[in-house]
Each structure stands twice: as C-alpha cells, then as structure tokens.
Amino acid sequence: MFNINNIIRENIKNLKPYSSARDEFKGEASVYLDANENAFGSPLETNYHRYPDPLAHAVKLELSKIKGVPPRNIFLGNGSDEAIDILFRSFCNPGKDNVIIVPPTYGMYEVSANINDITLKRVNLTEDFQLNLEGIAEAIDENTKLIFICSPNNPTGNSINREDVETLLANFNGIVVIDEAYINFSRQKSFIQELTEYANLVVLQTLSKAWGLAGLRVGMAFASEEIIEIFNKVKPPYNINQSSQELALAALKNVTQVNEWIKQILSERDNLVLNIKNFDFVIDIYPSDANFILVKTTDANQVYNHLVNDGIIIRNRNKVELCEGCVRITIGTLEENKALLDSLKSYKN
User: Fold this and answer.
1) Which residues are annotated as modified residue N6-(pyridoxal phosphate)lysine in the UniProt record (predicted)?
2) Which one of 33, 58, 103, 177 is at 20 to 30 Å from 65 when CA atoms are compared?
3) What is the torsional sign of CA 39, 44, 46, 49?
4) Which strand (E) or helix (H) includes residue 168?
C-alpha cells in the first residue's frame, strides 16, 4: 500500500519553506512596502516591479476549468523540467535511492538523476516500444522511489498501453510519473482523470507543445493534494514570473484556436507520413500519437546532414537505444513540410 510518508525524504518532511512577502499578505492594499521592491515602477511600458503570485492562482483556476482538476491538485513549474527536479529532491536520497526509466525516453530524467546523485536503472522498452513489465518488476527494490513513463513517448511517438501503466500504479509502492507532454495530439485519454484512483500518480503536462508557449516555460504537474503540497514546499518562492503568468492566462482563453492547430498538425502528420514512406531510403515510420514522427532510414547521419545543408533541422536519434538509423521530424507548417519533402527528393543514398 502506497504511503507518502514512507518515501518522502526526512529533511523535506521537516523543511520549513521560505515565507515570501506575498505568502504572508494575500489581500489587496493601497500601499505595499513589504517586499523591498522598486516602488517607482519598471523601465518598460508594462510595470513588473511587483513580485508575482507565488502559486499562480489565476492560471491554476483557468487550467482547472480546462482540465477538470481542482486547483489544489495542480502545480505550475518553470517548464515540466522543474517538476522532474523537484520529484528527485523531494523523494530520493542522494547516493542511496534509485529510479527507473524506460529507454528510449526523454533525456531529462537521466540528467536530473545525475545532478541529484540518484542511481538510474534502465529497463528498455520492448521492440514495439511498450513497457517490459517483467523487467521493471525485477528492477524494483526497497530503494526504488520513482518510475518515469513518457506517453506519448519521446522520441518514439507512440502511446504506452494504458493497462500496463495501471498495473504499475496498482503494484508499485513508490511514485509513477507519467509525462504527457504530447497528450493533446494523442487518441489516448489523459491519466489526470485517474488522480482520485491512485495516490502514487503524478502526471506531467506542458504549455510548450500544443499550446505553442515553449518560450514562456510553463509546465504542469497534477497529483494528490499531499504531493502538490510537497512540490509547493520545495519550489523557489516565485518560480513562475509575472509576464509568463499573464501571457499563459490569456492563452488559456483561446482553446478553440489551439484545437484548430491540433487538427492541422494531425492532418499534416498524416500527409507527411504518406509522402515520406515512398522514399527508397526510408525503412520504417513508426506510429505516432505526437506532433512528430520517428523515421528509420538507411543512414540517419547522411539524411540529417543533407537536410542541414538545405537549412532544415531535424533531430538525429541514431545513437539512442532502439532508435539506430532513426531521425525524429517535428510536424511543421504546410510550407515547412513542403520544403522538407523537396529537400528529401534530392537526397541520394
């Protein structure tokens, strides 16, 4: 049975978080002389001389309407990378604990583990890029605190079988982290609807992909109220700046536009697959639930360099586990995809 008190680090249990001026006074006033801000304003058209809401309540309220999750179950971070780092710092003791990743997968899990001096256990996906449940079960020990699952997966693009994830959630006494950065492009429903079913579930999402806000660096974590309280305890006091909060809030009111872009991206993805599969240097195109495709070629390095010479940048995944010979191609606009195809037509094996 999962019990958060069994996995949280002792120093985090006893941590007294920093109390900012905006934590101690949350009402409205006519004169603010509490936070050592510059009362004269900013050298910009818009004033940013006041510290932002430490918990970005307005953004969480708008997200709550869209996601169907109470604000108390939402954490906002400086990208989802901040949420990943906080998971390590809250639940994993350096030099003692370990986490499990399932390569090929998002590279920041490993980087964050190394930064925090946490042992990383790799259990590769199967040949069809699904979980090796038997291998994961064998890798778990008493010091395993986190299992990271990216679904839809980066760089492969496929969604992970839901039943397999539920098996882990039901049987693992640590936290299962499901990274849904690309969920808006997927036919699979989000796991955020399962938060009340699994106390050990953390779902990561982002405004960087479908929402087109990569430059704002706003990531989301959805979890039980207990886990979110720990996130808020550990995070820096003002981790989401005022401009990002304002712009994110404005963007979240344009769901219709985002949904239209998603339809266009999915249509362009299908069109790109139909065209690319006809090239003689293409061995396979893997099924994708994301805004990119993974393409296995006869020579990934040559394909990549050819496109670079034409000013087109894709991602060479040739050195990634199970992705030998592969390149990852993000779905662009109609014009960008045409430029890609025109360049590939001139590629010589």
Assistant:
1) 209
2) 177
3) negative
4) helix 162-171
